[in-house]
Amino acid sequence: MQSALAPMPLQGFLGGLMIGLAAVIMLLGNGRIAGVSGMAARGLGFSGGAPWVLAAAFLVGLPLGAAMVEWLSGGVITRFPTSPIFLIVGGLIVGFGTRLGSGCTSGHGVCGVSRLSPRSMVATACFMAAGVVTVALPGGGLLKARGNANVGQKVFVRDDAVEGIAPSLTLEIIEI
To answer: What is the pLDDT of residues 53-76, one digit of tens each?
Structure first.
């Protein structure tokens, strides 16, 4: 199993290539934007748009694709907040934002920007700006954990506790 902190430029490149290819196939093959929020809304019956079977297949394919990567790679390291409440509240806020912005990062950021859509360029700039502001807020870039570590020492943290010293990796550590 590879550490989530290890640099993986080839995997990132291939992942981006596959996302772009999927977006092109969806657009050219069906005349539809491969936006996850729109497909989710259609698949769950909240809105019209793409045929229901296509939207349902798209939704089923997302976790199946993740499971396939997990199986083929021998394991993926994941980290989630300690409370499921944070996940639920965060998901609801994101869902509200995608309806408010008429799309999500995949629809606007991947598909809309590649089509040079002015609305998508503005939406993507807003996504990016909101992320920068969130990290810049007091406490936004700080990680609080209990345990023993020296200042500047690289450590693994899980569930707000220091698990141990991180191996020396060839990557640039930035404060977010």
So the answer is: 888 888 898 889 888 888 887 776
